[in-house]
């Protein structure tokens, strides 16, 4: 896999399309002594990764960091202009590769953590209606209780320790801290990913932006229109804070 070093020392990304991301998830791990970390980088994550904290720690430890969002895609293209790469195919969110994973329906045990109890139940039903081999166990992000449709009453720690894939959607930076706190439970070779609010989109408790808006980099506008109070700071203020931080970094004398 090729990695791209973003400009201004903003970190590394591994541009993959949804199919390639699933190939990596389902492929054999080179190092069975530890779990593998799959993270995604969007503008909000980039902003948080520039300060000490769980997002910075998890991103720096990730085995694969996906390109999530047009700003990160443009930064990656700036870093590799000779190759005309990555393309929009490699700009993917968690819903993209998780949809592909469900389509493949591998014989793996997946533990999902996050969302309301309603989201956890509806997400479990969504997955079970579309797969026959994948074992899906969902714990909500509030009481960490198993979903109403769950087939097991085993505790979350035991399930995480047995899982082949662990998906954590608790919002940034809570989900990154949760992953760091529970990494030691996970078996070697397993994959853990921070997936934000993707469970809500599958469950129907949040609406996903139309695909054509994604092609034009307008998904943020759709989300802002539907959740203005929750997302106004992220989309209208954070980009300017990020630019200010980058400007200050550029003024620092080189060692």
UniProtKB/TrEMBL annotation:
Keywords: Glycosyltransferase, Transferase. The keyword Protein biosynthesis does not apply. The keyword Cell wall biogenesis/degradation does not apply. Pfam families: Glyco_tran_WecG. It comes from the Bacteria. This is WecB/TagA/CpsF family glycosyltransferase. It comes from Microbacterium galbum.
